[in-house]
Amino acid sequence: MRLRIGDAPELNDVPWEYLYNASLNQFLSLSEYTPLIRYLELPRRIRPLTIDARLEILAMISSPSDYPQLEVEQEWSRLNDALTEPIEKNQVRLSRLAEAKLSMLQRELRRADYHVLHLSAMAASIQGPRMVL
Q1: Which of 41, 60, 62, 93 is disulfide-compatible with 97, CB 3.0–4.6 A?
Q2: Residue 94 and residue 51: Cα distance in Å, rounded?
Q3: Quick one: CA dihedral 31, 57, 62, 36, positive or negative?
Q4: pLDDT by residue (tens digit) across 35-47?
Q5: Do 70 and 124 touch, CB atoms closer than 8 A?
Q6: pTM (2 decimals)?
Q7: How many CB atoms lie within 10 A of CB 103?
Q8: Which helix (H) or strand (E) is 99 found in, with range?
C-alpha cells in the first residue's frame, strides 16, 4: 500500500506509528507485513542503488538521558537478530555508532562508506516543530 500525502500538508506531522487497523486490533507499524516508510516526493526518479559487494549499514541509536529511555541494547540486539542470516553470509555488515551525536555521525561518514543509515530515535514536539531526539 502506498499512501501519498503530498497534497495534504496538514498530515505531514502525523506520526505513521498511529496508523491503526481496528479489525486486527493492531498498529500497522507493528506488523512485519506492512513496513511503513516516509520519504520525500522528488521531482525526478531516484535510480536504484547498485551494490557489488556486501551492504554496509551504520546504526545510530539515540536515547537522551533527559527523556524516556529507549532500550538501546535491546534495539541493537533486535537489529542483529533480524540480520543474522545475511551477516553470516557476508552479505551485510552492521556497524554501530559509539555515541548518537551529530559530530560522531559526521566523522564516521567521512571515515567510511555506508549504503544505509539505520536511525533508532524518539520524536518529540517541544513548544515548536517536531524534532528527532
Answers
A1: 60
A2: 15
A3: negative
A4: 666 666 777 877 7
A5: no
A6: 0.58
A7: 8
A8: none
